[in-house]
Amino acid sequence: MYKILMIDDDIEVLEVNKKFFEEKECKVEVCSEPQKALSLVESFKPHCIFLDVMMPEVDGFSLCRQIRNITEVPVLFLSGKVSEDDKVEGFEAGGDDYIEKPYSLRELYARMTSHVRKSMASAKKEKSSVIIDLNPFYIDKEKHKLYYEGEEIPISNKEYDLVLFLAKNVGKEITFEEIGTQLWGSYIETDRRNVMVNVSRLRKKIEGQTGIDNFIETVWSKGYKLMKLRK
Predict the structure, then answer these.
(1) Strand partners, 48
(2) In what order do the strands lie in the sheet with 223-226?
(3) 154 and 204 in contact (C-beta within 8 Å)?
């Protein structure tokens, strides 16, 4: 279900558009007061925004620039201002499309779905580069955090480095030496104890919050192996 935010000071236009898109099984929020639009963008989190240009107090171009400080979802301008300069200004303000009034609602829907699909595909690709998915666990490499079913598991920096290294080699047996070298840059046999202590602490934190005690398995006399669990 697509979530659409429509911003226009013309209430009749909002009502007609809202009805059409709801019939297409979209979830729609409308806003006829531009000064309230930013709070709606933050709370509603739309997949796409329809934005009029000529509105009181703040015009659509200025509002779009403010919206771009909050979200990168597609913004489609719907306007009777159709000069080349108007269109250029719309795109420079951060708009993704500029549709002249009057317009076909069928075409508007088609344009919206096209923009949203591209936006979602781009977001998924970007997310995949910073997320290691170990369902029901995942690691956010950008935030340096470990999560279980969306809830953060508080761990130290060294424990994060440890679980990240294991996650990059999920399912593989990793030796004490490989772990020690990764965490401290070098390894001697007496470092095995340090590796074991860090793994033990990490396990306790994971089990204490999730109840799962087999996320990191011991490979007897050799090292450890991180298991990708299936719910």
Answers:
(1) 4
(2) 174-175, 223-226, 216-219
(3) no
* Top CATH class, 3-128: alpha beta
Domain with CATH 3.40.50.2300 in the chain: 3-128
CB atoms within 10 A of CB 55: 20
Looking at domain 131-226, its CATH architecture is Orthogonal Bundle (1.10)
The per-residue pLDDT for range 151-180, each reduced to its tens digit, is 999 999 999 999 999 999 989 999 999 999
HSE-CB at 159 with a 13 A cutoff on CA atoms is: 17
Q: What CA–CA distance (Å, rounded) separates 158 from 221? A: 22
Per-residue pLDDT tens digits for 47-105: 999 999 999 888 999 999 999 999 999 999 999 988 999 999 999 999 999 999 999 99
Structure tokens at 73: 């979802």
